[in-house]
Amino acid sequence: LDPNKFLLTYLSGMCVKSDVDFARVESSKIRILFYARYTFQKLPFLVEPIISRLLRNNDLDIEVSFYGDGEYYDKLSEQLSCSKYKNVFKFNGRNDCKSEIFSNADILILPSLNEGITLTSFEAINHGVLPISSDVGAQRELLPDVCLVKLDDDFIDSFSDTLADVIQDREKFDSALACCSSKLEKLNSLSLS
């Protein structure tokens, strides 16, 4: 194959800073985002028990927004509407306006069963949002240990505790986001030749 017939490009501003300025929307609430397909692999139905435990054990002012679509749409909607903490959940369908979504978030949660390295993590970091993810696939290439949760029998408790740690310790949050940004820059500087 002739290498001159191929062009390496970036997708949706995921890998480089966007040319379009976006304004972070400030809020007194901690804004948690689930932005993925509503499918088994993404484990969206674990978000409610993770957040319920977080709120049972901590006095926090949070909101959790869901964006996506998929086979679990109706079941997830029902689960959230029956939650004791249903007032913190904002259930949405698919929305591809990433700048708008990420400018209204502080933390992206990815409680996935398996991943490669998620493009959503790239987008989140690019917009100043801290990803917290299952420690699966290649997420370790982009996220530091403080942002990774082992997928085991204690997953819900561990994920909730990880969220509490970064929410209640601003220095830890800022340090983790800086580490993510540094890892992203290193990945962007890799040469494919």
Q: Tell me, briefly, the overall form.
A: globular
Helical content, roughly?
Answer: 25-40%
Protein structure class: alpha/beta
Mean pLDDT: 87
N-end to C-end Cα span: 14 Å
SSE succession: EHEHEHEHEEHH
Strands, total number: 6
> What oligomeric state best describes the polypeptide chains here?
single chain
Which range does the strand content fall in?
5-15%
Which stretches of 5+ consecutive residues score pLDDT under 50? 7-20
For the biggest β-sheet, the strand order reads 3-2-1-4-5-6
Any overview of this molecule?
The chain is α/β, with parallel strands linked by helices and 193 residues long. It has six helices and six strands, in the order E-H-E-H-E-H-E-H-E-E-H-H. It has helices at residues 47-57, 73-81, 98-102, 119-126, 155-168, 170-188; strands at 30-35, 62-67, 89-91, 107-110, 130-134, 148-149. Strands 3-2-1-4-5-6 form a six-stranded parallel β-sheet, sandwiched between helices. Helix 5 packs across helix 6. Mean pLDDT is 87; it is low at 7-20.
Brief synopsis:
By secondary structure, the chain is an alpha/beta fold. The chain has 6 helices and 6 strands. The protein is globular, with a radius of gyration of 17 Å.
